[in-house]
């Protein structure tokens, strides 16, 4: 129940006045509905089907005034009232339906925006601990279920209000019959708790299957090349078949529970009404008028009771989705690192002396003993090129993630010109960094728009200059529409090297003061690598460059080379100097690469 309350509070905070107006509208409709129902009685009386005796009964008191009106006029008045009530009732119903949909979708949009903003503002650690497909699933499928749940919840409130007012009217007409219906409803609701529990369990399974489905599909298309080249189609098809079957079973189970509970209620209704009529006629000698009332009250009140039950079951299936959305909201809020998205006004940092790692320790999992970085002390001088090398898993990417403030040291500190890197200067640092990752990201749009992504105000001349720097101008000129050429999903229409050069051009376009390259030249041929090397050489005095390189030839001109092994710095110095250290790992790495080339 807690998650439902949480969302109700959120919904209330979001819709406020609108929800009040809707509630008043619902009360009005219920009253009008009740009056319409009451009017049926004199109509029946006039028609002569049954006679509601005058006297002391509640009904005769309500309709006593009608006796003053001549028969023909009375019926006309009643029918006109009936018509008016129906028109007003339907107009309000239409208004409320539209307003409820507005509340439902408006609330979903509000939640979506909030969650997306929180996700964008969450730190890197939040992302490395989660599957991307789970995040996608929560903000798409689970949120859609929450939105549908909001609708059910609004229906539930409507149901409750209607029921209470109908109960009031029914009590006015006949307290005994109403009490009987209510007691029966209560007894049945005790039996139906099982349905609600089963619905909730089913809802958890729905969430879990949807999560696995999206994760599997995402992996499938991300790894389609591997699937094709390793003939894994058959096994993927088997996986797909099995998860589709689970989805089918789950839908079938859902409909089985739903129809079972509805069947149960409808049968109970038929049995109860039969018993009641039987008892009324045989034991209490009720008249036609009373029997009419029994049927009217039963047929009006009972569907409300079953409607509430159906809404409760549906809300129960939504609870797991509510829980996972709440979890995501809380976790992303706890991982907040950006407090104001409009950070264009934040000035980039201009590093004068350099960036220093002082006794830095970092591990990905604080429950484990393994440190990815273990007591790192190093200085990256400004406007110089530093290269980080080491075997796979040595901690190179982790180190530059810390330099960019993506992760924070567990112990020790990162100093920018002597000032500790903290949340106060984090965005200034990020605004001065351009980063080229191992697996660079290109949008499925034109080259121009991909370049503008980093620097929206760039002129075409500046773009060509950046492309030339990255040795990418030649291939872009050869493309049919040059800068306006569409490059396909994630740049798939370009070769690996072309993609890398384009991303490099994008990185230098905004002339950052810090350029971080993670394996940025790994897909380049020797000729283009040499061009990049020259370009980096030209930039050396103008920006601080940090390069991770497996291909050691790229960093031949680096001002300092940092050799990492198992999270520790084991060598540091100039390329030539390290190359001459006979027992050093750098020479070893270099030797292995030379062997590979030969
Ligand atoms: N997200 C993560 N969660 C847990 N451990 C991680 C994570 N990323 C890296 N590690 C671990 O931290 C250590 C350093 O990894 P890192 O990626 O920094 O190495 P690297 O030198 O950049 O390797 P490579 O050259 O293969 O990219 C490795 O032992 C790795 O398994």
Automatic annotation (TrEMBL):
Q: Which SUPFAM superfamilies match?
A: ABC transporter transmembrane region (SSF90123), P-loop containing nucleoside triphosphate hydrolases (SSF52540)
Q: Which UniProt keywords apply?
A: ATP-binding, Membrane, Nucleotide-binding, Transmembrane, Transmembrane helix
Q: Which Gene3D superfamilies match?
A: ABC transporter type 1, transmembrane domain (1.20.1560.10), P-loop containing nucleotide triphosphate hydrolases (3.40.50.300)
All copies of domain ABC transporter, residue ranges? 355-591
- Which Gene Ontology molecular-function terms are recorded? ATP binding
Instruction: Provide the protein's localization.
Output: Cell membrane
Domain named ABC transmembrane type-1 is located at 23-317
- Which SMART domains does UniProt cross-reference here? AAA
Q: Tell me where the transmembrane regions lie.
A: 21-49, 69-88, 153-173, 179-196, 263-281
Membrane topology classification: Multi-pass membrane protein
This protein's source sits in the domain of life called: Bacteria
Show the PANTHER family listed in the entry: ATP-BINDING CASSETTE SUB-FAMILY B MEMBER 10, MITOCHONDRIAL, ATP-DEPENDENT PERMEASE MDL1, MITOCHONDRIAL
* Protein name, entry field: ATP-binding cassette subfamily C protein
């Amino acid at each position: 129940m807690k998650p439902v309350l949480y969302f109700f509070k959120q919904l209330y905070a979001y819709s406020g006045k609108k929800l009040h107006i809707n509630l008043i509208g619902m009360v009005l409709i219920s009253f009008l509905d009740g009056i319409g129902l009451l009017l049926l009685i004199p109509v029946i009386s006039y028609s002569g089907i049954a006679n509601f005796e005058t006297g002391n009964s509640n009904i005769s008191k309500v309709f006593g005034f009608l006796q003053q009106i001549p028969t023909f006029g009375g019926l006309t008045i009643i029918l006109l009232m009936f018509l008016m009530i129906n028109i007003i009732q339907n107009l309000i119903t239409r208004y409320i339906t539209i307003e409820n949909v507005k509340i439902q979708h408006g609330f979903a949009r509000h939640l979506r925006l909030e969650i997306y903003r929180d996700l964008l503002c969450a730190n890197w650690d939040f992302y490395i601990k989660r599957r991307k497909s789970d995040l996608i699933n929560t903000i798409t499928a689970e949120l859609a279920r929450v939105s549908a749940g909001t609708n059910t919840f609004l229906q539930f409130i409507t149901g409750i209000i209607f029921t209470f007012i109908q109960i009031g009217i029914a009590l006015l007409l006949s307290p005994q019959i109403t009490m009987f219906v209510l007691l029966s409803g209560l007894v049945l609701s005790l039996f139906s708790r099982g349905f609600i529990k089963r619905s909730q369990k089913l809802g958890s399974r729905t969430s879990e299957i949807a999560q696995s489905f999206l994760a599997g599909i995402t992996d499938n298309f991300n790894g389609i090349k591997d699937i094709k080249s390793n003939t894994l189609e058959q096994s993927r098809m088997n996986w797909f078949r099995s998860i589709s079957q689970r989805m089918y079973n789950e839908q079938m189970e859902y409909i089985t529970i739903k129809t079972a509970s509805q069947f149960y209620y409808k049968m109970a209704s038929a049995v109860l009404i039969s018993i009641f009529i039987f008892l009324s006629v045989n034991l209490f000698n009720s008249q036609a008028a009373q029997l009419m009332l029994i049927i009217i009250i039963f047929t009006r009140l009972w569907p409300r009771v079953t409607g509430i039950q159906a809404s409760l079951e549906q809300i129960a299936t939504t609870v797991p989705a509510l829980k996972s959305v709440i979890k995501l909201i809380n976790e992303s809020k706890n991982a907040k690192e950006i407090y104001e998205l409009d950070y264009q006004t934040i000035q980039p940092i201009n590093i004068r002396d350099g960036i220093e790692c002082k006794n830095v320790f970092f591990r990905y999992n604080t429950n484990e003993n393994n440190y990815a970085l273990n007591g790192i002390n190093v200085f990256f001088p400004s406007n110089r090129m530093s290269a980080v090398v080491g075997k796979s898993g040595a901690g190179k990417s982790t180190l530059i993630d810390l330099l960019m403030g993506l992760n924070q040291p567990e112990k020790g500190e990162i100093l920018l010109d002597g000032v500790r890197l903290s949340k106060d200067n984090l965005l200034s640092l990020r605004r001065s960094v351009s980063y080229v990752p191992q697996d660079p990201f290109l949008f499925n749009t034109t080259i121009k728009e991909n370049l503008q992504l980093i620097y929206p105000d760039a002129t075409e001349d500046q773009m060509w200059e950046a492309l030339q720097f990255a040795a990418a101008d030649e291939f872009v000129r050869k493309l049919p529409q040059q800068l306006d050429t569409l490059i396909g999903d994630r740049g798939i229409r370009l070769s690996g090297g072309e993609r890398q050069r384009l991303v490099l051009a994008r990185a230098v376009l905004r002339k950052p003061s810090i350029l971080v390259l993670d394996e940025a030249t790994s897909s380049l041929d020797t000729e283009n690598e040499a061009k990049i090397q020259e370009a980096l050489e030209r930039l050396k005095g103008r920006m601080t460059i940090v390069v991770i390189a497996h291909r050691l030839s790229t960093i031949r001109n680096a001002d300092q080379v940092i050799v990492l092994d198992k999270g520790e710095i084991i060598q540091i110095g100039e390329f030539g100097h390290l190359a001459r250290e006979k027992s050093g790992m750098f020479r070893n790495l270099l030797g292995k690469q030379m062997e590979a080339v030969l």
